[in-house]
Specification:
With 861 residues, the protein is mainly beta. Among the domains are: 239 residues, Jelly Rolls (Sandwich); 31 residues; 152 residues, no CATH class. The chain is built from four helices and 52 strands. The chain has a 16-stranded mixed beta sheet that branches. The protein has an eight-stranded mixed beta sheet with strand order 5-2-7-8-14-11-12-10, with no helix packed on it. Strand 29 and strand 30 form a beta hairpin. The longest helix is centred in the last third of the chain and has 30 residues. The N and C termini lie far apart (181 Å).
């Protein structure tokens, strides 16, 4: 039985020891040089929990552990949550010599001992009768009652050590009006931070203050009162328990210009005085000084800096008798007469106002419905009373916003919404700096902004007109900045989704002077692109096209299209002057050009393709650009469109006209020459007969009025052989037997079939002037009819040229088979009279046409 009882007891002891070991908490601490780290057990907490230093046989444990050596030390707590039992104090000494202090800037460690409540102490010491000075960074420190706590859980306490004992100057928080505190001889600054709170201290600087032998001051507090309406509390040392020292305490107050102050004593507890009385001395900025008692009325509605010095009497130093305790309240407000006005927005749909002071150095004080405001906002549909005190007009900035809920696009509702600046209350003498319209549309709708002439502002051609229009999407990305001008090229901007349009001045100071209609708004069905521009370039100069949000780049997966109209007899030169290409994560960027005629050819390029910087378009066209999902970089394109007149080739036209005129001139000259040549022909009709081996001669002066080649007297429709050749059958019959019945006395030709080979004499060849018989070739034995078969009734007239009489090779082929052509012997040419009536052979005037045939030949026909 005993053995069975001993085993559970041993197991229990072992488990208890394991539990104790598991509850131990171990940390390593390394104090900074000149710094002491103390672990102090809270009163009544963790009676069985101690802090142990080092390990092994040299380990020492106690309820208070102090570490002073600047070396790593293992601290072990025999409880699992030492932060609930112990607090940590980190103490640092700062000794100041007559010239400087050992440490100037203080900054406690912000990472150590987070599981403990921490107190950082800085012990300060200077020469006797000297003061140490603490300078706090802006915005300074704020004094609170000792029973209060700071919002950020960082509480400062400043103590000074005097012969009469320690005096608490006060408890402070960050973000206040106290910029500097001076205290006599020795003191301590403490910062308390609770467990689990990250350290975020206000670092302060330590320096040597002035000598106090002549003034007998114990504490000096410098205060910088804020601008505007404020109320600040200050407390005497040892507030709540009583101040028993006879030394003086002084507050120096810096007041902003154009501010008034009022001093009010609250919660005053007078001491029991043995000698003298409590007095308050004031010194104003104009060196005016006066003294009051705490129960008197203190200064009211004064201006400028001032100092307040509190001198205690010789109090009874008994804890049962209260000491001096005083709460000083200093209120600051603006003096002067404010300007009052009214903003009534109940009549304007969706209009709201906002007023700001843009000059932080000014002393402007604004109020909305009698409440001071840093920024005044008047909501839409309300009426507000505004107050402005010492607010220069040039320092104020008024912006207005008007919101419209646009209906769904409907073919029945075609009335445009005109965007113009409404008239504000005349009493509101604040220049209108910016006016914004917010156009909210339903889904599947597009906002159409139309204007007479709109110009996009780009670096190469910025707006210099009175105002500028910034068109943006509601997600914050701007579409572009535009201005209204006579040389504008944009007639319409279509935006898918909600749109904001902001008007800002360029050359004017007050937008309320502008009464014109800036834009007209209509609704249309939803478009596929994000933005569509309708533009008409000008002949007078280039037009610039910038992608939305230029130059920062288009939104991912967005697109824009320009519809560019090119006037007749012009061509457009499109240049890409500035292109930024991204590296696409998904998809591709694309630039596409397509004529408005859907049958035209489309040109397109991606970001990984090169393209020409200049493209010529002969007609109106679309220019589309779309962005991808960029991985890096941006897609931004600046384009320029220039119109050029299509000049016709006037040189070719001139040359053609000159050529036609020359041709007409040549024809005219030829006609004139022909006419003159015909007029200059011999007027004597001559005939000749070729004798093969005789001497040719002309038989008299007989000539034909016309050459046979120029008339058709020798052309017949039919030939009666007996009639034609009968007179030649009997060689003895006289030639006059026909009585001239059919020949009319003229020589005629007759057709006789070819009966044998021709002689070797070459045939005569036609020439415009004469027949040249030299150098003639060809087949002389080939058969040819005397006359070619006629194609029409009017047969071409044979030509009877004359050659030199000395030529023996003359041959008239028309007379080959005529008996007149046949001779018995060679000899000289004899004149032969061909007709008895020579009067009918007289020369006659030639005619250019054959309409008037000669009578002799007509009768022969």
């Amino acid at each position: 039985m005993m053995g069975s009882c001993v085993v559970p007891v041993l197991i229990g002891l072992i488990l208890l020891q394991i539990h104790k070991i598991s509850e131990c908490h171990k940390i390593e601490v390394t104090p900074d040089p000149g710094t002491t780290v103390e672990f102090i057990k809270k009163a009544g907490q963790g009676l069985d929990c101690d802090a142990c230093k080092d390990e092994g046989p040299s380990q020492t444990c106690n309820s208070k552990l102090e570490l002073t050596e600047a070396r790593p030390t293992i601290v072990t707590f025999n409880c699992s949550q030492p932060g609930d039992v112990f607090t940590v104090e980190i103490n640092q000494k700062i000794d100041c010599s007559p010239t400087a202090c050992s440490i100037i800037a203080t900054h406690p460690d912000s990472t150590r001992f987070l599981e403990f409540s921490r107190t950082f102490n800085w012990d300060l010491k200077v020469q006797p009768d000297r003061m140490f000075q603490l300078d706090f960074p802006a915005p300074g420190m704020r004094q609170i009652k000792p029973s209060e706590s700071c919002p950020d859980k960082h509480t400062y306490t400043i103590i000074t050590y005097q012969r009469s004992g320690p005096i608490s100057i006060g408890t402070f928080c960050r973000n206040g009006t106290i910029s500097c505190i001076q205290a006599l001889f020795k003191g301590r600054v403490s910062l308390e931070v609770p467990k689990g709170t990250d350290l975020n201290p206000s670092d302060f600087k330590v320096s040597i203050g002035p000598d106090t032998k002549a003034t007998a001051l114990v504490v000096v507090v410098d205060v910088k009162l804020p601008r505007g309406l404020s109320s600040t509390d200050f407390f005497t040392p040892n507030y709540g328990t009583g101040y028993y020292s006879e030394e003086k305490i002084k507050w120096n107050f810096a007041v902003e210009p154009m501010q008034n102050f009022t001093v009010l004593f609250q919660h005053y507890t007078p001491p029991e005085c043995k000698n003298k009385k409590v007095l308050v001395d004031y010194t104003l900025a104009d060196k005016t000084s006066f003294t009051k008692e705490p129960k008197d009325i203190q200064p009211i509605n004064k201006q400028g800096d001032f100092s307040l010095t509190l001198t205690n009497c010789e109090p009874t130093k008994d804890s049962l008798v209260p000491g001096l305790s005083l709460n000083i309240n200093v209120a600051v407000f603006r003096g002067g007469t404010p300007y009052l006005c009214t903003a009534d927005l109940r009549k304007e749909e969706g209009l709201s106002l906002q007023i700001e002071n843009k000059n932080p150095e000014s002393y402007c004080e604004m109020s909305l419905n009698s409440v001071a405001q840093e920024k005044i906002v008047v909501p839409a549909g309300t009426k507000a009373d505004l107050s402005f005190l010492d607010c220069p007009v040039q320092d104020l900035q008024l912006t207005a916003t008007q919101t419209y809920d646009c209906p769904r696009a409907s073919p029945l509702d075609t009335r445009p919404l005109s965007l113009s600046i409404p008239t504000l209350d005349p009493s509101l003498h604040v220049p209108l700096h910016k006016f914004t319209w917010l156009l909210r549309v339903l889904d599947q709708s597009t906002v159409d902004l139309t204007v007479k002439n709109l110009h996009q502002s780009v670096p190469d051609k910025e707006c210099n007109k009175r105002v500028s229009l910034l068109v943006s999407e509601t997600d914050g990305s701007n579409i572009g900045q535009f201005c209204s001008m006579a040389e504008g090229t944009i007639q319409k901007i279509q935006v898918k989704g909600n749109v904001s349009i902001t008007v800002t001045p360029n050359t004017i100071k007050d937008l309320s002077q502008e009464k014109e209609t800036f834009l007209r708004v209509t609704m249309s069905p939803e478009i596929t692109e994000n933005v569509i521009y309708t533009v008409s370039p000008l002949v007078s100069g280039p037009m610039y096209l910038a992608t939305p949000n230029w130059p920062h780049g288009m939104n991912p997966s967005s697109s824009v299209t320009w519809i560019i109209s090119v006037p007749q007899e012009h061509k457009a030169e499109l240049q890409f002057t500035n292109v930024s290409k991204p590296v696409c994560d998904s998809g591709h960027t694309e630039i596409a050009i397509r004529p408005l005629d859907s049958q035209g050819q489309t040109q397109s390029w991606r970001e990984d393709q090169s393209f020409a910087n200049t493209i010529i378009q002969q007609q109106s066209f679309y220019l589309n650009m779309s962005n991808c999902e960029p991985k890096s970089g941006r897609f931004a394109v600046l384009s320029k469109v220039t119109l050029q007149k299509e000049t016709k080739n006037f040189l070719n036209i001139i040359l053609a006209v000159v050529g036609v005129l020359l041709l007409l001139l040549i024809i005219a000259l030829i006609v004139v020459c022909v006419i003159r040549k015909r007029k200059n022909k011999p007027k004597t009709n001559r005939s000749s007969i070729f004798l093969p081996r005789g001497k040719p001669f002309l038989p008299g002066n007989a000539t034909f009025p016309k050459s046979r080649a120029d008339n058709e007297s020798h052309v017949y429709a039919s030939i009666d052989d007996p009639t034609m050749y009968g007179n030649f059958a009997d060689k003895n019959q006289p030639a006059e037997i026909d009585n001239g019945a059919w020949s009319n006395g003229h020589p005629v030709d007759a057709y006789r079939p070819f009966s044998g080979p021709s002689d070797s004499i070459p045939s005569a060849k036609d020439s415009s002037a004469e027949y040249s018989m030299e150098g003639r070739g060809g087949d002389r034995d080939a058969y040819q009819p005397f006359l070619n078969p006629p194609n029409t009734f009017n047969l071409p007239r044979p030509r009877s040229p004359l050659v030199s009489q000395g030529s023996l090779r003359f041959e008239d082929r028309r007379m080959i088979d005529n008996e007149l052509h046949t001779f018995k012997s060679f000899g000289d040419i004899n004149p032969i009279r061909l007709s008895a009536d020579e009067s009918r052979l007289q020369p006659q005037m030639e005619s250019d046409t054959d309409s008037n045939a000669e009578p002799e030949y007509e009768e022969a026909i």
